[in-house]
Specification:
The chain has helices at 3-9, 59-80, 107-122, and strands at 27-30, 33-39, 88-99, 129-135, 144-152. By secondary structure, the protein is α+β, with helices and mostly antiparallel strands. A 5-stranded mixed sheet has the order 1-2-5-3-4. β1 (27-30) and β2 (33-39) form a beta hairpin.
Length: 153
C-alpha cells in the first residue's frame, strides 16, 4: 500500500508542504540524504497546538501536535521526491523539541506521536534514531517542533 493510502486508512491526509517562515528552505537534498527543516503543528496554514506542556497542554495534546509535525515532515518529503516514495529508502533520525515547563519530563511520550506515525505509515522503513528535549519556548508558541533526516535510494 502506498504511503498516501496508508495515511487515508488512518483517517489522515497529506497536507500541503508549508512554505518557509524565514530565510531557509524547507528541505535540502545532499548526496543520499534528505534533510527536512523543523516542522511545526500547523496543518495547511491553520494554527493549532499552541501552548506549553505541563502548563496549558497535557501529554495527549503534545502527542497530537507531534503527529501534526510528522504529517508536515511527510508533506515536505513528498515535495522533495515529487511524489515518488520509492526514492525514500528509510527515515534515519528525528529531532523533537517540546515547549514545556521546567518540571515536565514526558518529552519521549510526546515525540512518540511522530515516531509512531512514521512506523504506522512506513513500516520498518519508519524506524529511526531520535532525540526528544524540552525547550522553554518554541516559534509562534507551538507545543512541538520536529525535524527529520531520510536516506534516499
Amino acid at each position: 500500500m502506498e504511503l498516501v493510502e496508508k495515511l487515508q486508512a488512518l483517517g489522515l491526509e497529506l497536507p500541503q508542504a508549508a512554505a518557509p517562515a524565514a530565510n531557509y528552505v524547507p528541505y535540502v537534498v545532499s548526496g543520499k540524504h534528505l534533510f527536512v527543516a523543523g516542522q511545526i503543528p500547523f496543518l495547511n496554514g491553520q494554527s493549532m497546538h499552541l501552548g506549553r506542556l505541563g502548563e496549558d497542554l497535557n501529554v495527549d495534546d503534545g502527542v497530537e501536535a507531534a503527529r501534526a509535525c510528522a504529517l508536515n515532515i511527510l508533506a515536505q518529503a513528498n515535495a522533495a521526491v515529487v511524489g515518488e516514495w520509492t526514492q525514500i529508502k528509510k527515515l534515519v533520525k528525528l529531532g523533537g523539541f517540546v515547549n514545556c515547563t521546567p518540571d515536565f519530563t514526558d518529552h519521549p511520550k510526546v515525540v512518540n506521536g511522530a515516531s509512531d506515525l512514521f512506523v504506522e505509515v512506513m513500516g520498518a522503513k519508519g524506524k529511526h534514531a531520535r532525540f526528544a528535549v524540552g525547550a522553554p519556548s518554541l516559534p509562534l508558541g507551538v507545543a512541538v517542533e520536529i525535524d527529520a533526516i531520510f536516506e534516499l535510494a
